[in-house]
Amino acid sequence: MKTSEEIEQLAEKYYPPYPDGIITDEIRALREGFIKGYRCQEDTADKKFTLDDVINSIHQAELKHKKNYTEIYELMKTYLQSLNK
């Protein structure tokens, strides 16, 4: 796990200032997004979703939208299995 300083250094590496040293609002926003995304990725790195999690999500969607999500279920199952390898 990286420290906050290491993550900020990575953000600066990937989103450097312009050659004249100017850091625009866009660069700041990109850096913030990178940092938040990196931390989120680290926070969830040890979590794995189960097939029951997917089934429950699909069931909730079916109840809410009153539609059959069989095809989506199959796609999600395949995707989930690829993530948990």
Number of contiguous helices: 4
Largest sheet: none
In helices, the fraction of residues equals 55-70%
Shape: elongated
Oligomer: single chain
Could you spell the SSE succession in H and E letters?
HHHH
Total DSSP E strands: 0
Distance between the termini: 21 Å
Structural class: mainly alpha
- pLDDT averaged over residues: 79
What is the rounded Rg? 19 Å
**Count of domain modules:** 2
* Regions with little confidence, pLDDT below 50 for 5+ residues: none
**What is the strand content?**
under 5%
Description of the molecule:
It is a single chain. The chain has 85 residues and is mostly helical. The chain has two domains: 4-43, no CATH class; 51-83. 69% of the residues lie in helices and 0% in strands. It is built from four helices and no strands. Helix 1 packs across helix 2 (25-43). The mean pLDDT is 79.
Characteristics:
mainly alpha, elongated, 85 residues
Offer a concise description of the structure:
This protein is mainly α. The protein is 69% helix and 0% strand. Helix 1 (4-14) packs across helix 2 (25-43).
Which secondary structure elements does this structure contain, and how are they paired or packed?
Blueprint: H1 4-14, H2 25-43, H3 51-65, H4 70-83
Helix pairs in contact: 1-2, 3-4
